[in-house]
Design a protein that fits this description.
With about 100 residues, the chain is mainly beta. It is built from one helix and seven strands.
Length: about 100
Protein backbone atom coordinates (compact mmCIF):
# COMPACT_ATOMS: atom_id res chain seq x y z
CA UNK A 1 0.00 0.00 0.00
CA UNK A 2 2.91 2.37 0.72
CA UNK A 3 4.05 2.01 -2.88
CA UNK A 4 0.72 3.30 -4.21
CA UNK A 5 0.74 6.23 -1.78
CA UNK A 6 4.18 7.26 -3.06
CA UNK A 7 3.12 6.75 -6.67
CA UNK A 8 -0.07 8.82 -6.29
CA UNK A 9 0.63 11.44 -3.59
CA UNK A 10 -2.17 13.46 -2.04
CA UNK A 11 -2.57 17.16 -2.74
CA UNK A 12 -0.10 19.24 -0.76
CA UNK A 13 2.62 16.57 -0.86
CA UNK A 14 4.27 17.36 -4.18
CA UNK A 15 1.30 16.75 -6.49
CA UNK A 16 0.00 20.30 -6.19
CA UNK A 17 2.99 21.89 -7.88
CA UNK A 18 4.70 22.79 -4.60
CA UNK A 19 8.43 22.29 -4.20
CA UNK A 20 9.26 19.31 -2.01
CA UNK A 21 12.44 17.46 -1.06
CA UNK A 22 12.21 15.01 -3.96
CA UNK A 23 10.49 17.19 -6.58
CA UNK A 24 11.98 20.09 -8.54
CA UNK A 25 9.76 22.25 -10.76
CA UNK A 26 11.46 23.89 -13.75
CA UNK A 27 9.71 26.88 -15.31
CA UNK A 28 11.00 27.55 -18.81
CA UNK A 29 10.08 29.72 -21.79
CA UNK A 30 10.64 28.96 -25.46
CA UNK A 31 13.01 31.48 -27.06
CA UNK A 32 11.24 31.21 -30.43
CA UNK A 33 7.52 31.64 -29.60
CA UNK A 34 7.53 32.65 -25.91
CA UNK A 35 5.37 29.73 -24.73
CA UNK A 36 5.97 28.88 -21.05
CA UNK A 37 6.29 25.32 -19.76
CA UNK A 38 6.32 23.85 -16.26
CA UNK A 39 8.35 20.64 -15.95
CA UNK A 40 8.34 18.28 -12.98
CA UNK A 41 11.63 16.57 -12.09
CA UNK A 42 11.67 13.67 -9.63
CA UNK A 43 15.12 13.79 -8.02
CA UNK A 44 14.94 10.08 -7.14
CA UNK A 45 14.26 8.75 -10.64
CA UNK A 46 15.13 11.42 -13.25
CA UNK A 47 18.75 12.11 -12.32
CA UNK A 48 21.72 10.28 -13.81
CA UNK A 49 24.40 9.22 -11.33
CA UNK A 50 27.89 10.24 -12.51
CA UNK A 51 29.65 7.70 -10.21
CA UNK A 52 32.45 9.93 -8.95
CA UNK A 53 35.44 8.54 -7.10
CA UNK A 54 35.62 9.36 -3.39
CA UNK A 55 37.08 12.85 -2.97
CA UNK A 56 36.61 13.74 -6.64
CA UNK A 57 35.15 17.21 -7.20
CA UNK A 58 32.32 18.16 -9.52
CA UNK A 59 28.67 17.22 -9.81
CA UNK A 60 27.40 13.87 -8.55
CA UNK A 61 24.19 13.80 -10.62
CA UNK A 62 23.03 15.33 -13.88
CA UNK A 63 19.62 15.85 -15.44
CA UNK A 64 19.35 15.90 -19.22
CA UNK A 65 15.83 16.71 -20.36
CA UNK A 66 14.22 17.69 -23.64
CA UNK A 67 10.96 19.61 -23.79
CA UNK A 68 8.79 20.73 -26.67
CA UNK A 69 5.93 23.20 -26.61
CA UNK A 70 2.70 22.77 -28.56
CA UNK A 71 2.92 26.14 -30.31
CA UNK A 72 6.05 26.13 -32.48
CA UNK A 73 7.37 22.61 -31.65
CA UNK A 74 10.90 23.82 -30.96
CA UNK A 75 12.95 21.31 -28.95
CA UNK A 76 14.32 22.81 -25.72
CA UNK A 77 17.36 21.09 -24.20
CA UNK A 78 17.90 21.34 -20.44
CA UNK A 79 20.93 20.27 -18.39
CA UNK A 80 21.05 20.64 -14.61
CA UNK A 81 23.94 19.48 -12.40
CA UNK A 82 23.44 18.40 -8.77
CA UNK A 83 25.71 17.70 -5.80
CA UNK A 84 25.68 14.56 -3.62
CA UNK A 85 22.65 15.86 -1.68
CA UNK A 86 20.77 16.54 -4.93
CA UNK A 87 21.03 20.33 -4.60
CA UNK A 88 21.29 22.28 -7.87
CA UNK A 89 24.87 23.31 -8.72
CA UNK A 90 24.39 24.70 -12.23
CA UNK A 91 21.85 24.75 -15.02
CA UNK A 92 21.90 25.52 -18.72
CA UNK A 93 19.27 25.63 -21.41
CA UNK A 94 19.30 25.72 -25.23
CA UNK A 95 16.44 27.26 -27.29
CA UNK A 96 14.81 28.66 -24.16
CA UNK A 97 15.33 30.35 -20.83
CA UNK A 98 14.57 29.67 -17.19
CA UNK A 99 11.87 31.95 -15.77
CA UNK A 100 10.47 32.68 -12.31
CA UNK A 101 7.22 30.83 -11.53
CA UNK A 102 4.02 32.82 -11.95
CA UNK A 103 2.17 33.57 -8.71
CA UNK A 104 -1.47 32.47 -8.94
CA UNK A 105 -4.04 34.81 -7.41
Amino acid sequence: MGFLKRLFPKKGKGASGQESKDILWLHIQCSKCGKTLKLCVNKNTDLENLYKERGESGPAYVLRKEAMDDKCFTKIFIRVEFDENRNVLSREITNGEFIQPQKSV
